[in-house]
């Protein structure tokens, strides 16, 4: 027992004799306990929130935590942040600062030297374009020169008016002369045409009458020859040598003459009849005139035969076969036939004379009408020449009067300008910013009188580098912020873009105009300017960090909540989908999607590292 006690004491003594060793074991045990607690906490946290680190997996497996044991883990999952895609309006701008100044600022100066006799406005007054703001003294010599120049101008103006009126009257009279001559020429030509036409109609009618007269003459000749033949046929006679025997007449010579003239008349009759029938339908003047000649020759020959027959009958008939009554009847028939032939001769000759007269008349009337036309043409040429002469003379007179008027006007303009220079007007509308002179003060030409500013419009001039100037164009909007109005934005427009850079700064001037109708914006205010260089509506954008490139193709992670997802105790989980997209850069943080994404889709913006198609993820931001 003692030994045992000694042994226990030994142990106890040993333990008591080595206190440092005892303390070391306590520390080790405490550290191991803390480590076990920490490892257990991490394992539980990783299972709950989806952290799947290889080291933790190995620890869990070494400790016997398999799937379904103590920690619930259906699939490995990582936590991500997502963002839904919605279209938005985007704009690009260039920001800079500048100082406001009036849109127009004019120093109004005098164009002539003189004494200021009146100032009509004070500093701060608003004036309209053309309003008189100052008056210089006008000397008497200048006023006298103006009156003289004005009177000379009025005289020259009146002279020009009278010259124009006189020239107009002369030209109108000459034009009337030309018009009258043209009408006379027209009438003369019409008269010539009518004369030639009428004589042609008269000749045509006379030729028709000639054919009718020829037909009547042929009938008269035929009747006369028939009458002679009927008397001759009453007796038997024969020709013995140069004489005839058997006809009861005591005048053998007359009978011989009859027997000569009668056959000639008959031959002429048949020849003329044949010619008449051949041209009966002709209207040719020459053929009708030839017919008249033949008819007249026939009538003359028939008249000779009748005269010979009359002589035979006058000598008495010795044969008792013709009674006194028959002889008288024969004589009567011969006399009647002779009268008809004489009438036909008269008619034919009258027609021939009429034709000849009409021909002469046509020539005479035509010549007279042509002479009238020639005279009218000469008169028209003379009237036109007179008109040209009057027009040329009027032009010279008018030009001279105009030159006198221009000279008078030039002199008046010079004096008027000198006089007008004594009246100083506002070249633009605006506010008088400063007055540089006083009433009664002498000023010289070119000396400023007032400083006139227009703050109804404000100009802001900025200077841009060559990298920005290409983005700016006239008409673009500019948003202006002023320290005086921190909660307001003013909108202006770019109205000028310089084409040449400043040689010193190498920058380009851009001018912006702001409306300032209420005058709130003052000149000299510091302005922060944003020139809107690009604006676009309904654009889908994504953060640059959400896009990665694989094999040269832009891609992005989407979460698809429509696919099955089962992670114990995790409500917001989804499967990963990888989508090809096309983008354009907007700025250093955003990209514009031009293809591949649609409104309402959800993309991964954080935690998108080495994800695979179909991986399960936990959406932290939901």
Question: What is the gist of this entry?
Answer:
Helices cover 49% and strands 26% of the residues. It is built from eight helices and 23 strands.
Distance between the termini: 74 Å
Query: Can you list the strand order of the major beta sheet?
Result: 17-18-19-23-1-22
Write down the overall geometry: elongated
- Coarse structural class: alpha+beta
Please explain how this structure is put together.
By secondary structure, the protein is an alpha+beta fold. The protein is 49% helix and 26% strand. It has 8 helices and 23 strands. It has helices at 2-17, 19-49, 54-62, 140-232, 252-278, 285-314, 324-420, 466-469, and strands spanning 77-84, 88-109, 114-119, 126-127, 132-136, 238-240, 243-245, 423-425, 430-435, 442-443, 448-464, 477-482, 485-497, 508-515, 526-539, 541-543, 547-550, 553-560, 573-580, 582-585, 590-595, 602-606, 616-619. The chain has a 6-stranded mixed sheet with strand order 17-18-19-23-1-22, with no helix packed on it. Strand 17 and strand 18 form a beta hairpin. Helix 5 (252-278) runs antiparallel to helix 6. The two termini are 74 Å apart. Mean pLDDT is 83; it is low at 1-23 and 47-75.
Question: What's the arrangement of secondary structure elements?
Answer:
Blueprint: H1 2-17, H2 19-49, H3 54-62, E1 77-84, E2 88-109, E3 114-119, E4 126-127, E5 132-136, H4 140-232, E6 238-240, E7 243-245, H5 252-278, H6 285-314, H7 324-420, E8 423-425, E9 430-435, E10 442-443, E11 448-464, H8 466-469, E12 477-482, E13 485-497, E14 508-515, E15 526-539, E16 541-543, E17 547-550, E18 553-560, E19 573-580, E20 582-585, E21 590-595, E22 602-606, E23 616-619
Parallel strand pairs: 1-23
Antiparallel strand pairs: 1-22, 2-11, 2-15, 3-5, 3-10, 4-9, 5-8, 6-7, 9-11, 11-14, 12-13, 12-15, 13-14, 16-21, 17-18, 18-19, 19-23, 20-21
Helix pairs in contact: 4-5, 4-6, 4-7, 5-6, 6-7
């Amino acid at each position: 027992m003692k030994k045992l006690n000694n042994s226990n004491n030994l142990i106890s003594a040993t333990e008591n004799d080595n206190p440092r060793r005892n303390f070391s074991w306590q520390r080790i045990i405490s550290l191991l306990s803390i480590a076990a607690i920490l490892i257990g906490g991490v394992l539980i946290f990783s299972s709950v929130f989806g952290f799947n680190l290889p080291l933790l997996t190995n620890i869990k497996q070494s400790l016997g935590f398999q799937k379904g044991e103590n920690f619930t883990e259906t699939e490995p999952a990582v936590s991500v942040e997502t963002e839904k895609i919605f279209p938005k309006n985007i704009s690009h701008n260039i920001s800079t600062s500048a100082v406001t100044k009036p849109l127009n600022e004019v120093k109004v100066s005098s164009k002539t030297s003189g004494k200021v006799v009146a100032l009509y406005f004070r500093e701060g007054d608003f004036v309209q374009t053309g309003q008189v703001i100052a008056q210089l003294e006008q000397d008497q010599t200048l006023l006298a020169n103006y009156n003289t120049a004005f009177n000379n101008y009025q005289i020259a103006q009146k002279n020009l008016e009278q010259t124009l009126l006189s020239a107009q009257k002369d030209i109108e009279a000459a034009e009337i002369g030309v018009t009258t001559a043209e009408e006379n020429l027209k009438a003369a030509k019409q008269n010539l045409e009518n004369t030639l036409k009428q004589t042609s109609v008269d000749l045509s009618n006379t030729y028709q009458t000639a054919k009718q007269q020829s037909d009547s003459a042929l009938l008269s000749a035929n009747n006369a020859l028939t009458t002679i033949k009927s008397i001759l046929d009453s007796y038997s006679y024969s020709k013995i040598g140069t004489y005839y025997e058997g006809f009861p007449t005591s005048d053998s010579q007359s009978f011989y003459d009859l027997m000569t003239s009668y056959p000639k008349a008959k031959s002429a009759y048949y020849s003329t009849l044949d010619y008449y029938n051949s041209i009966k339908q002709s209207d040719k003047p020459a053929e009708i005139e030839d017919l008249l000649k033949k008819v007249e020759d026939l009538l003359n020959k028939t008249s000779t035969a009748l005269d010979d027959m009359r002589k035979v009958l006058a000598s008495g008939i010795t044969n008792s076969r013709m009674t006194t009554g028959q002889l008288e009847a024969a004589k009567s028939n011969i006399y009647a036939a002779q009268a008809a032939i004489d009438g036909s001769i008269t008619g034919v000759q009258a027609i021939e004379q009429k034709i000849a007269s009409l021909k002469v008349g046509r020539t005479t009337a035509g010549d007279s009408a042509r002479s009238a036309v020639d005279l009218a043409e000469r008169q028209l040429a003379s009237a036109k020449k007179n008109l040209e002469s009057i027009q040329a003379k009027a032009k010279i007179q008018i030009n001279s009067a105009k030159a006198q008027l221009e000279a008078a006007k030039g002199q008046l303009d010079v004096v008027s300008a000198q006089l007008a220079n004594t009246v100083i007007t506002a070249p633009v509308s605006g506010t008088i910013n400063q007055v540089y002179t006083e009433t009664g003060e002498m000023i010289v030409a070119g000396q400023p009188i007032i400083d006139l500013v227009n703050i109804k419009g404000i100009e802001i001039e900025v200077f841009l580098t060559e990298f920005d100037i290409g983005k700016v164009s006239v008409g673009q909007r500019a948003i202006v912020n002023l320290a005086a109005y921190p909660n307001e934005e003013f909108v202006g427009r770019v109205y000028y873009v310089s084409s040449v850079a400043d040689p010193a700064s190498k920058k380009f001037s851009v001018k912006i105009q702001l409306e300032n109708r209420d005058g709130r914006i003052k000149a000299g205010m510091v302005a922060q300017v944003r020139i809107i260089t690009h604006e676009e509506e309904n654009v889908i954008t994504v953060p640059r960090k959400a896009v990665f490139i694989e094999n040269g193709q832009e891609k992005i992670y989407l979460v698809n909540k429509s696919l099955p997802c089962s992670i114990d105790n995790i409500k917001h989980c989804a499967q990963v989908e990888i989508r090809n997209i096309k983008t354009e850069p907007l700025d250093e943080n955003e990209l514009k999607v031009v293809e591949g994404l649609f409104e309402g889709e959800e993309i991964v913006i954080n935690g998108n590292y080495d994800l695979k198609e179909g991986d399960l993820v936990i959406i932290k931001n939901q």
